[in-house]
Design goal:
The complex is a heterodimer. Chain A is an alpha/beta fold. Chain A has helices at 17-29, 41-51, 69-80, 95-103, 119-130, 138-146, 159-170, 174-181, 185-198, 207-220, 226-234, and strands at 9-13, 33-38, 55-59, 85-90, 108-112, 134-136. Chain A has 2 domains: 9-136, 3-Layer(aba) Sandwich (Rossmann fold), CATH 3.40.50; 141-223, Winged helix-like DNA-binding domain superfamily/Winged helix DNA-binding domain (Arc Repressor Mutant, subunit A), CATH 1.10.10. Chain A contains 11 helices and 6 strands. A 6-stranded parallel β-sheet of chain A has the order 2-1-3-4-5-6, with helices on both faces. In chain A, helix 2 (41-51) packs parallel to helix 3 (69-80) and helix 4 (95-103) runs antiparallel to helix 10. Chain B is 57% helix and 17% strand. Chain B has helices at 2-59, 64-78, 155-226, 229-259, 262-267, 269-279, 296-317, 353-362, 390-397; strands spanning 83-89, 95-102, 127-134, 137-145, 284-289, 322-329, 332-339, 366-370, 378-384, 404-405. In chain B, the strands form 2 sheets. Chain B has a 5-stranded antiparallel β-sheet with strand order 3-4-1-2-10. In chain B, strands 5-6-7-9-8 form a 5-stranded mixed β-sheet, covered by helices on one side. Classes of the chains: A alpha/beta, B alpha+beta. The A-B interface holds A 15-16, 18-19, 22-23, 25-26, 29, 61, 66-68, 91-92, 94-96, 112-114, 116-119, 143-144, 147-150, 152, 222-226, 228-229, 232-233 and B 199, 202-203, 206-211, 213-215, 217-218, 221, 242, 245-246, 249-250, 253, 256-257, 262-263, 265-267, 270-271, 273-275, 277-289, 321, 324.
């Protein structure tokens, strides 16, 4: 891919100043342009309106409520500026939050905050999101794929296919999956086609739609999924 | 001779008549006594029945306001009065009406001045009041009154007798309410502490650790840029330190989740239970019919009921699957956790179920454990939603019945 000269502009939001500064200097060292730093959600939204950055990195839990302010700010930014990439960081990962964010549009990421520490991977993730992808924390995907179900639809998959499915859910491209599993891209393509067929999932040509489809499938297969209960409630 | 004969005759007749009259008198006396005894027996039987009904309410764990209202009602019916009022003395010397009964269809009193127990502007004999002694102190006053005329003689004495007998019920209803209120308070305080610690972990220790690891990372980069063998070694050591910080972060995340699931506070019972289900080592069938959010204490306790039951199933039941049903029926939240394992769970085994029972009952709920050997284990729990918590219901029971009467023993 082409590397443009202009650095990606970022706005950061976290109520912890020390951490925010640490993250800012890390991003600056890695060739990003940190355009602004916010301490809470309203400040972030104002800053985004003014600065129109390409990427927003926001902590999910911020003052005043220390609940899901970051996620709500992300939704608000999405509504006004659908092209801005958004990464939501959290101390714990939940499927509902992931669905909420990925369903809101392209260029979204949802990661454990501690992922920042592995700087190289983190920077790569940011670039992936800015390019239009969707990234879901491996921890959450692992939980979704490993969850025991009474009649498990994932039983039709081979062990290798499960691995590939998990990487698809994380937002990896075929090329990325091939590198992770030390196989050729062609092999990955074969696995992906087989998985989609077995699980009756639609072919998706962009990464965001692929993540959304896999995530929706995994979530719907889980115990007590809203869809399942909605049917019960109506029935 | 004839005269004397007739005199004798007369004497004899008088004697006979007298004897007959005496016999009649005795018979009448016996009959009257019998009727009195029967009435006395009936009164006693009615009293016993009334006491039994009150005792049954207490034993069944009825809320104190219900027990106190029942005591007033039983007294009113038993003594055939128009109104019966049970009042409790407060610390400030005033008294609060905690139970009131009015005879259905009785002519209404003419207002507050006729309130029994106030002792003001009432005709003598139309009301009676006795002190209630409970738990070694003068707890309150029980008063009865008639709107139409004087009370039957002995009403005061009978009221005193009945009140004395119900004092135990009153005391235990109060004690039970105080106990469950304090249990609920202790539990709520513990839950809040857990939540606060979880929050401090996330916003304090975890954040600090991420910051620390980032600083180590920056130092590592500087060392790498120096490109000397010593600096290279330093960079390697820093890598080890960063890895350790990452592991500690993971541990803290686990601890935080065990303390209090943040998702429960953020979005409610359903997402929190779904997260539990997907982390369960045994497949969980989950059916949740809960509209929106519930009171916080109920959500937290409902979550712990499911979490603890699932843990128990995984540890002891050797089950292949477990179903979790959560729904609102009427004004109660019902939770059933049912596995297909070996059964035989019991509350005394110390596997957390007894703690759950305490938690549920502190909120005025019901806990049932069915675990016949070989036939699976079912934990069934019901939380009342109307009264948010026992603490809450206990505090409102004090003001049940709006009126205040003066601290006065009445005209016994």
């Amino acid at each position: 891919m082409k590397v443009t000269d202009k650095p990606t502009s970022v706005v950061l939001a976290d109520d912890d100043v020390l951490l925010r500064e640490g993250m800012a200097s890390l991003l600056q060292r890695s060739g990003f342009d940190v355009a602004g730093q916010a301490g809470d959600a309203p400040q972030l939204v104002t800053m985004v309106r003014e600065l129109r950055p390409e990427l927003v990195i926001v902590d999910i839990r911020m003052p005043p409520g220390y609940s899901t302010e970051g996620l709500e700010a992300a939704r608000e930014i999405r509504a006004s500026f659908p092209d801005i990439a958004i990464l939501v960081l959290s101390a714990h990962v939940e499927v509902e939050h992931a669905m909420d964010l990925v369903a809101s549009g392209q260029r979204s990421g949802y990661l454990l905050k501690s992922r920042i520490i592995n700087v190289d991977d983190f920077i790569e993730t940011l670039r992936q999101i800015v390019r239009g992808g969707a990234v879901i924390d491996p921890e959450l995907v692992k939980e979704l794929v490993a969850a025991r179900r009474v009649s498990d639809p994932l039983d039709v998959l081979s062990a290798r296919e499960r691995e590939v499915l998990a990487l698809m859910a994380e937002g990896r491209s075929n090329n990325g999956i091939a590198r992770e599993l030390f196989v050729t891209e062609g092999t990955v393509e074969k696995h992906v086609r087989s998985i989609l067929m077995k699980l009756r999932l639609p072919e998706a040509d962009d990464m965001h739609r692929r993540v959304l489809a896999v995530l929706t499938f995994l979530n719907a297969q889980l115990a007590g999924s809203p869809a399942e209960d909605l049917a019960d409630a109506v029935g | 001779m004839t005269a004397s004969a007739s005199e004798r005759d007369q004497e004899h007749r008088a004697g006979v008549e007298q004897a007959a009259r005496r016999r009649v008198a005795v018979l009448v006396a016996i009959a009257v006594a019998g009727a009195q005894t029967r009435a006395e027996l009936q009164r006693l039987a009615a009293e016993q029945a009334a006491l039994r009904r009150v005792a049954t309410l207490v034993a069944g764990g009825s809320p104190p306001q219900e027990v106190l209202a029942a005591v007033a009602g039983e007294a009113g019916r038993l003594l055939h009065v128009d109104v019966a009022v049970l009042s409790r003395y407060e610390a400030d010397g005033s008294a609060t009406v905690v139970g009131r009964w009015d005879r259905p269809g009785a002519p209404p009193g003419t207002g507050r001045e006729q309130e029994p127990g106030t002792g003001r502007e009432r005709k003598p004999g139309t009301s009676a009041a006795v002190p209630v002694w409970a738990a070694g102190r003068r707890w309150g006053v029980m008063s009865v009154g008639s709107h139409s005329g004087p009370l039957p003689a002995g009403t005061g004495a009978r009221l005193a007798g009945f009140t004395e007998l119900t004092a135990t019920a009153i005391a235990s209803a109060e004690a039970q309410a105080a106990l469950s209120a304090s249990r609920a308070r202790i539990m709520a305080a513990a839950d809040q502490t857990r939540r606060r610690i979880e929050r401090n972990l996330h916003d304090g220790a975890q954040q600090r650790l991420v910051s620390l690891a980032l600083q180590l990372r920056a130092a590592q980069q500087t060392a790498r840029e120096a490109a000397s063998p010593e600096a290279g070694e330093l960079a390697g050591r820093l890598e080890g330190a960063i890895r350790e910080a990452t592991e500690v972060l993971e541990e803290l995340r686990e601890i935080g989740r065990g303390l209090h699931p943040a998702i429960l506070t953020d979005t409610g019972l359903r997402p929190a239970l779904r997260a539990l289900a997907r982390r369960s080592a045994i497949p969980v069938e989950l059916n949740i019919q809960v509209p929106g959010r519930l009171p916080e204490q109920i959500e937290v306790s409902g979550y712990y009921v499911v979490a603890e039951s699932l843990t128990n199933t995984v540890k002891h039941a050797r089950a292949a699957a477990v179903s979790v049903e959560v729904g609102v029926a009427g004004d109660a939240l019902r939770i059933t956790v049912h596995d297909d394992g070996i059964g035989g769970a019991d509350l005394g085994r110390g596997d957390g179920l007894a703690g759950l029972k305490d938690r549920v009952e502190a909120l005025g709920g019901r806990f049932r454990l069915d675990s016949p050997p070989g036939a699976g284990t079912a934990v069934r729990v019901e939380f009342p939603l109307a009264a948010t918590s026992a603490a809450h219901s206990a505090s409102t029971s004090a003001s049940a019945g709006a009126g205040q009467v003066h601290n006065h023993e009445g005209d016994r």
